[in-house]
Amino acid sequence: MIKVKKLAISYQRRKQLDKRSNWLPHLVTLGFVMVMSLQACVKDPIVKEVVERQCGTPFTIKLPNFFPPMPVPADNPFTVEGIELGRQLFYEPLLSGDNSQSCAGCHQQNIAFTDTNRFSLGIDGFPGARNTMPIANLAYSPQLFWDGKAGSLEQQALFPIQSKAEMHEDLFKAVKELQESEKYPDLFYQAFCDSTITVDRMAKSLAQFMRTILSHSLKMAPGSVGFQSRSAVEELGYQVFINEKKGDCFHCHSVNIFTTNFEFANNGLFEGPGSDVGLFGQTSNPIDMGKFKTPSLLNLKYTAPYMHDGRFTNLRQVIDFYDTGFHVTPSLDVNLLKHTDGAGRPIPRTWTETEKAALLVFLMSLNDEAVLVDQRYSSP
Fold this sequence. Notes:
It is a single chain. With 380 residues, this protein is an all-alpha fold. It has 14 helices and two strands. The protein has helices spanning 2-41, 45-53, 80-90, 153-156, 159-162, 171-180, 184-192, 199-211, 232-241, 280-283, 315-325, 334-337, 353-363, 370-373; strands at 264-265, 292-293. The chain has a two-stranded antiparallel sheet with strand order 1-2.
């Protein structure tokens, strides 16, 4: 009897053990779920913020109806916070070596984001080698600077900061000063969901802001909403502009809202050894000797002096240069070469003084006063 009882107990115990073993997988699963839930509860708040805010408020830029779609890098999309951070940095003297000069020091909004000097002065008082370029519509330009040394606005934004002739600052020193400031860690957090300031984030925010700076002349957008008709004199100047035997300007200064083809050309300023080599300095290709980026003709009223070296103080000098003053070298643009004789000398074009004067009137009409006062581009 005793043995039977022991056997019965053993049997019952075995049944209990079997029953427990059947629940084991369920207990493991339940434990896993509980652990994951606990982890979710203690999730890093910054990571959670990134997911919820997606690092800034997406911003869709509103373009005039006659503008082409704007190319925007996939790794630097517009955000409200990124653009505002870029605006703050554009006007921030902490980006210069002695904290005295900002990007806006040479790119002044009230004169179409240029300055009035032939060569701008850096913080050390030394002039640069080239004239300050306007910065409107740069989002559409595949290469930046007179010599094309930057392939994106993100790259372009960092050159003046480091240049000894300009802001003369070490990038990492600039980052350190921004990091130690009262306002910038929070502004970077709003734009990038991280208060850590980096060179890359600084460049991206500056590029975002500069991409938003748009300018156009409604006299160069026929068929568009708001197109402004040209006066009789302006129309005559326009006809000279597109006439190959007279102004012959349209090959480089395209007849579109940008008034440039965004390309590079030797426009006859290059004289040979000792001259600025332009694009050649980047490519080492002989055909690029003396080539410079074609600037826009927008806001010429405000952007004197003219050319990459600022040698001309008025547009009449520019017209006379293209008539008989340009220099013939092997890399001269073909559209100027056709205005030469067999001995390599310029041939006066078939335009009259009246036509030259009308061309001047037309060129000086291509202004966009709105960009000079737009609060979105102004100092914070």
